[in-house]
Amino acid sequence: MSPDHADIPAADVSSAEPKYDATPIDPDSVTDEVRTRASLSFEAVKGDPEVRELISSANRNLGVLGFTEHGFRHVGLVANIANNVMARLHYDERHQELSQIAGYMHDVGNVISRHGHASTGALLSHTILTRMGMNSEDVIVVMSAIGSHGDDSGRLGEPVHSVAAALILADKSDVHRSRVRITDPADFDEHDQMNYATTSSFLRVDHETATVTLELQIDTSMASVMKYFELFLPRMQMCRRAANLLDQTFRITINDVVVL
Ligand SMILES: [Fe+2]
Ligand SMILES: [Fe+2]
User: Fold this and answer.
1) Closest ligand to 114 CA?
2) Which domains does the chain have, with CATH numbers?
């Protein structure tokens, strides 16, 4: 079944010279020539000095506060996974590229404060993407995805469209040993311990069965499966809602056993 491409604001086709064709199309029949495109490339965003500085500084600040890695590794991975979610569900290149850009920029608000970083990141992205020449329709898609990805404000992030859903799935599934910055296990907090115990994390998107599965390998000598749910229940709820918005069922396997 083809996804409904009308769930993010359509590009402005009323002007005399539209930048791209936003007409909903059959994703199975498109060619490179007729694909809709974002008005700014991911590569341009990735190479922007201000974006890079923000990511680097946000990661530094979170390190001071004792948070796990949120730098180029995390945002690069989230960008790739969000892009893959859109691609595997047959969304067009505009969806793919906007989700990639949102993934890369989603944590820049941490440079201001951990609290409310989704909202501040959304506003920062507006300024930067507008400066770089992205059109307003695309800026709004990226802004609203970043603004709804969840932060420490006590409320769960809630997807508002398909690009936001792809971002949430990508971001919340990044639990991995390589995110832990502390080198001495004696100093680990619960999140460090859980991340360190996770030796493999893979988000499998199966269009045929309409299923998104988070496949985890956990060293249970370091952290229990129960602990995973205890710590990450809010993340799992966000992932379930995000998958549902994309008409997918969310599943989790831990050490090859279906647990959700
Ligand atoms: Fe975040
Ligand atoms: Fe993140």
Assistant:
1) 1
2) 34-258 (1.10.3210)
